[in-house]
Amino acid sequence: MTTAEASVGETTVTQRLLASAAARGSHVALVGGCGGSPCSYPELAVTLQRAAAGLAWRGVRPRDVVGVYVADAACYILACHAIRAAGAVPSPVSGELPVPEIAGQLADCGARVLITSQALAAAGLAAADRSWVRQVISFGEAAGAMPFASLLGLGSLRPTAARSHDLALLPYVRRADGTLGQAGITHLDMAAELVRLCADAGITERDVVLAAPPAGDGRAYTALVDHALMRGSTVVSAQACELAAMAVTHQATAAIVPASIDLAESPPLKLLAIDC
Length: 276
Description:
Layout (H helix, E strand, L loop, with lengths): L2 H6 L4 H9 L6 E4 L7 E2 H17 L7 E5 L3 H13 L3 E4 L6 H11 L3 E5 L3 H9 L5 E5 L6 E2 L19 E3 L2 E3 L5 E3 L2 E2 H14 L7 E4 L7 H12 L3 E4 L5 H7 L4 E5 L11 E5 L2
Parallel strand pairs: 1-13, 3-4, 3-5, 5-6, 6-7, 12-13, 12-14, 14-15
Antiparallel strand pairs: 1-2, 8-11, 9-10
Helix pairs in contact: 2-3, 3-4, 5-6, 7-8
């Protein structure tokens, strides 16, 4: 059995994250973005389990696919891990896509639920109307969408187990003919990538990691934000225009950013670049 196989077994990244949360005490997990106030690791675990219960109550079942179309790292982390905790599969939707392609992705993967955020809600709702989506959940108020916060009052759900070859993420990539196609990632694939990052990225619990909004097809972005959380670092969610200022304010030591973003004027950072 490989290291990755041993690390995942029947345990998802979300299960491992929640299992380690209590031991991190008051250490801050998330800052900024839709999360509002700084959130400690134990607080993050409670929120994810409550959100998972809310999703289950709203009809999300294990192995369902749920679209994730959000505008910042904090929303992305909360959405993806809540979906996984409910046993379902997040499908990241690029913020660069036009409405017809968003609708096409949602229809192709059979998503009946879309999680979005206030800044993207209008496009998300328009795409939902052209797909099989029946429920749109939004971080922040958005006409026609249910607030994410409303998921949190329906109890708590322990994260669901999964087999190593079950899907953990369903990103869509641009194919040679210009169309979007599925590029599913299993729990085993994800575990292997996190093992690689442990060796290569050098992120520890002492790091403060800036995270730009979701970028690319979601594969590299998901691995990097999950790696930062699994290592116990503090993830600071920031818009692209805020990165340099936030690096100074939060004394950041690393950054998850698209390769096209230049942070030369910021304090020295470990750059974890995403090719888009």
